[in-house]
Design goal:
Layout (H helix, E strand, L loop, with lengths): L1 H5 L6 E4 L2 H8 L7 E8 L2 E6 L12 H8 L4 E4 L5 H12 L3 H4 L3 E4 L2 H11 L3 E4 H6 L3 E6 L9 E6 L5 H10 L2 H9 L3 E2 L4
Parallel strand pairs: 4-5
Antiparallel strand pairs: 1-8, 2-8, 2-9, 3-6, 3-7
Length: about 190
């Protein structure tokens, strides 16, 4: 999305789950991202199709993944394109599983496509907790502890012209009125400062 905005796609506000893309836009000529504000948080989960749901607890080990995948694929959003994929790969590296799983990873352009492959093809995937929460077709097998990934924080920035409406909208996203909406969709809310 940041690249589309950089190439001229119209936008007044940019909300990203990865601070890198906020910084990327702030460095681009003519784009003024200022005062990025935290509006929500999320977590990463390993999801499976509900019909293949957890029958026991899952501990992320080489053996557990070998059993789960049974020679099949693990779906990740492409780390070069999507923050969720970057978070998942970072986690797998951190826990020493990336080398064992790398050849079984199927990359997709974004986390929504990863979710669709869980729902329709029955492939396990790392997706956002909010996506799993919203889907009636997936079960969470394992939630990655927040301490094991960089913070998954959605930052909102106003692009270019600083309008009163853009400021008001970001303040609403951080308000107590928005808290129930964020929670209804499976997000963790930002603390109003």
């Amino acid at each position: 999305m940041a690249r589309q905005i950089q190439k001229g796609a119209p936008a007044d506000i940019f909300i990203s789950a990865n601070g890198y893309w906020v910084d990327y836009l702030s460095k681009q000529k003519g784009l003024n991202t200022s005062g990025a504000q935290l509006v929500a948080r999320n977590a990463l989960v390993l999801a499976v199709q509900k019909s293949k749901g957890p029958t026991r607890s899952f501990t992320p080990t080489k053996e557990a993944f070998a059993s789960l995948l049974s020679g099949g694929r693990l779906v990740l959003a492409d780390p070069a394109l999507a923050p969720a994929g970057d978070y998942a790969k970072s986690y797998l590296i951190k826990v020493g599983l990336w080398a064992a799983l790398e050849d079984q990873v199927a990359f997709v352009p974004n986390v929504r496509q990863a979710l669709r492959l869980v729902e329709t093809a029955g492939l396990p995937a790392f997706i956002y907790a909010s996506d799993a929460y919203q889907s009636q077709k997936v079960s969470v097998l394992f939630k990655i502890p927040n301490t094991m990934t960089p913070p998954i924080q959605y930052q909102a920035s106003i692009l270019g012209k600083q309008t009163r409406q853009a400021h008001s909208f970001i303040q609403f996203l951080r308000s107590s009125d928005a808290t129930l909406i964020w929670q209804e969709y499976g997000f963790q809310t930002a603390v109003q400062e």
